Amino acid sequence: MTASRMTLIATPGQTVGPFFHDSLRYGGDRDLVPAGSPGAVILRGRVLDGAGDPVPDALVEIWQARPDGTIPRVPGSLCRDGRTFTGFGRSATGPDGDYSFRTLVPGPTEPGRAAFYAVTVFARGLLDRLFTRAYLPGDAAALAADPLLRSLPAERRRTLVASPDERGLVFDLRLQGPDETVFLRYREG
């Protein structure tokens, strides 16, 4: 059969993982800013399965705006230079399903909008990665006005809002079950 007459058919998705902790880490992956940077904050949490048990071999990525709300458009996410803020980080989970990032607090990308971290989760057993957001707590008016949060039932909104603690921000990711994190689906193309 010639290439011009070949018919391609869709194939099923493949589960992802559990190779993240070995294959996808790189130096400084979870440190978007160096220790001691002005305005640095720790964003941390746990990845949990439907039974509430930790997922020890997941990978969490964040993408974010700068504190002034502008989107970084510079190369270098995989080769940190200690100066350039790229807005991207990657953290493999530990034995307790824990992850953490040293980063900056993002600003809203539009006036009146709530600021958030864009979060992606890869884990064994998933056919594809999962997308969600970790909104910053504290600005009740911006959270109430956010189109995505407004589109959700009130009891589900809380799964998208990080909690403050003495070390920074906590955002647990529940992959399924009664307190499942709201995950997003993006249109392709």
From TrEMBL:
KW Oxidoreductase (keyword) present: yes
Coiled coil ranges: none
All copies of domain Intradiol ring-cleavage dioxygenases, residue ranges: 39-166
InterPro entries, per the entry: Intradiol_dOase_C, Intradiol_dOase_core, Intradiol_RC_Dioxygenase, Protocat_dOase_a
SUPFAM superfamilies reported for this sequence: Aromatic compound dioxygenase (SSF49482)
Entry GO MF terms: ferric iron binding; protocatechuate 3,4-dioxygenase activity
Annotated keywords: Dioxygenase, Oxidoreductase
Record-linked NCBIfam families: protocat_alph
Family label: Belongs to the intradiol ring-cleavage dioxygenase family.
Name under which the protein is recorded: Protocatechuate 3,4-dioxygenase, alpha subunit
Organism: Pseudofrankia inefficax (strain DSM 45817 / CECT 9037 / DDB 130130 / EuI1c) (Frankia inefficax)
